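In response to reviewer comment 3 from the previous cycle, which asked for concrete evidence that the modeling workflow produces usable outputs, we include below a single protein chain processed end to end. The sequence was submitted unchanged, and the resulting structure tokens are shown without manual editing.
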Amino acid sequence: HLSKLRNDCTYKEAQADLATLPGVGPKVAACACLFSLDKHDAIPVDTHVWQLAVEHYCRELEGKSLTPKVMDAVEDAIVGVFGAYAGWAHNTLFIA
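The workflow returned the following structure tokens.
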């Protein structure tokens, strides 16, 4: 099954599939996609990444709650800046 997710699915398809597992939400699914399934555009969005994104990339999200729709907007903004390897750029920003 994981091979199918890695080789035959887009990031969003793999994330959605993983999120059907008990206890796996969008952030954990995004982590699995980035670190294990070669989905280099996966952005694990949590409150810290959201704050970074609001400050630097998408000020229009300021004051909004961190919902799945807002998580998607954060991902889109970061991918828009860093491109196909945005997940790794995110990882570098997260630890900086």
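The chain has a mean pLDDT of 92. We consider this sufficient to address the reviewer's concern, and the full set will be provided in the supplementary archive.
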